[in-house]
Amino acid sequence: MDQIRHELRLCEATLSALALAIALFPPPASGLALVKGTRHASSPPTIISQTSSLETADRISQEADELFANEDYEGAIARWQEATELYKLNRDWLAAANRLSYIGLAFNYVRDLEQALSAYEQSLELLQQVEGNEFEKGKIFHSVGSVYFDLENWEQALNFYRQALPLLEIAVQQGNTDRLDLANTLYWMGRAYTNLREWQQAIAHYNQALVLLLLYEKANEPEQVWLGQSLDYWKAEIFYWLGISYRESGAYNDAYNAFSQAQMAYHETQNRSREADALSELGLILEDRSQFNLALQRYQQALAIRQDLCRQQPNSCTQDEIVRLLVYVAKIFYELGDSRLGENYLNQSLNLLSEVENPGIKANIFSNIGYTLAISNRPRQSLSYLYQAVDYAIEAEDWVLAARTRNSIAATNIELEIWSDRQHINYLLEEVLPLLERGEDKPGIAAMLRTAFYTRFRLLHYHCLKLHQTMRLRI
Fold first, then answer.
1. What angle do CA 91, 142, 169 make, to 5 degrees?
2. Is 457 helix (H, G, I), strand (E, B) or coil?
């Protein structure tokens, strides 16, 4: 009897424990227990319905892929959202996270950047529930960084690129991806540093990206397409932006070499528009070196390409770059003492000026017209264009160009003896310095302060001499 009572109490306790367990931990509706993002059936009676549900999700996702490939981004988003919900119901967090990342990409394509960020953030949340998968996490961190880059929030872009980098490095070591994804993140970090005018950081990241790209090219087919472009195209892009960073940091020889590499690579890939950009940059460096004949050759090559492209595609052509190059060529002819050809090209640019719409390009063009008029002995006329250049530069939020143009205004007013030295100093400190600080142009700030200090020193020296002469006369 005691034995029976004991077994009865044991049975009741077991039933109570089971009831409590069921209340606290109800079985999932799907009947699936998922481990590390894998699909694993735990009870045979529900396998058929779950398999069917996952097959439906896969089918819908495939339909979304096709819609995306046909550029129906809104349709793709809607279908991926359906698939995502089915994957979530089956607790397939990895598949759901991947589809959310695709949704983020599609929102990026339609330029709904806030929705893109939301989708990527949801994807990252799901991936936290899945062990490993460094490659997927790295890709999404990179994608979030790219959205912030498009929003021109360079610091936030760098924040997410930095989080992507170690994950992609692990993925490369594990063999889950190749060096190209790593090179891509390093390249865009360089671009963000370029926009922040942190030239040394930009140079370091471009060089790292370039090394990885060259190593990959050596080990694989050089004709391979990556992110929709050939490897030669991406090499050219890295060289181009490396040239920009070298030039802005004052390393002109390195800049010239980088732009030369970019120009050759663009030429080989028949990317004529970007080849014209590289030729223009080479012309600017040669002009700064006072190698005017060589600069003229590069500008004229770039101009011929731009004009030819406009003849081939008149509906998609803008006059912005043509006008800019016409001014560059005019300026060189004046430097070479050929005022007739200089005037000819300057008039061509002035005739097309009304067709330029981009305020940043307008600022550059007006600033160069002002300089061209100054060196052709028309300083008063140049002031009109320089003042307009400042307005356009501020509209484009190009604070450094606005500051440099105001510096040219100050120099012209001094040359014309319109301003006193004291007015010059005040203008530099009150009108130029704040723009340089806003543009974070540290070399420009240092140069401007040196000019102001030298001018003030010269003014004080002159004042002391006058005072000394007056004292001597009184004695």
1. 90
2. helix
- 235 closest CA partner among 202, 268, 283: 268
Distance CA 71, CA 457 (A): 65
Q: Which residue has the tokens 């998922």?
A: 34
Which residues are 35's β-sheet partners? 38
Alpha helices in 70-92 (DSSP H): 73-89
CA-based end-to-end distance of the chain = 137
Three-state SS for 276? helix
Of 230, 233, 188, 178, nearest to 209 (Cα)?
188
- Which residue carries 């090559």 as its tokens? 301
Q: How far apart are CA 259 and CA 237, in angstroms?
A: 10
pLDDT in tens for each of the 475 residues of the chain?
A: 444 444 434 444 443 433 333 343 343 333 322 223 333 333 333 443 455 678 888 888 888 888 888 889 898 899 998 888 888 888 888 888 888 888 988 888 888 888 888 888 888 888 888 777 788 888 888 988 988 998 899 999 999 999 999 989 988 888 877 788 899 999 999 999 999 999 999 999 999 999 998 888 877 765 566 667 788 899 999 999 999 999 999 999 999 999 999 999 999 989 999 999 999 999 999 999 999 999 999 999 999 999 999 999 887 777 889 999 999 999 999 999 999 999 999 999 989 888 888 898 888 888 888 888 888 888 888 899 999 989 999 998 888 888 888 888 888 888 888 877 777 777 777 887 787 777 666 665 666 566 655 555 554 544 455 444 555 544 4
Q: Could you tell me the two tokens for 213? A: 């790209």
Residue 233 corresponds to which tokens in the numbers above?
A: 């195209």
Name the phi and psi angles at 399, rounded to 5.
Answer: -65, -35
Contact 346, 330 (CB under 8 A): yes
**Residue that the structure tokens 């119901």 belong to:** 89
Q: Report the alpha-carbon distance of residue 136 to residue 74 in Å, rounded.
A: 23
Helix ranges restricted to H, 110-198 = 113-127, 134-150, 154-174, 179-195
Full-model pTM: 0.74
Exposed, middle or buried: residue 58 (CB in 10 Å: 0-12, 13-18, 19+)?
A: middle
DSSP designation for 429: I
Residue 437 identity (one-letter amino acid)? E
Tokens standing for 369? 């017209």
Q: 316: which residues sit within 8 A by CB, 6+ positions away?
A: none
Separation CA 242–CA 255 (nearest Å): 7
**Burial (Cβ within 10 Å: 0-12, 13-18, ≥19) of residue 414:** middle
CA-closest candidate to residue 388, choices 424, 413, 364, 416: 364
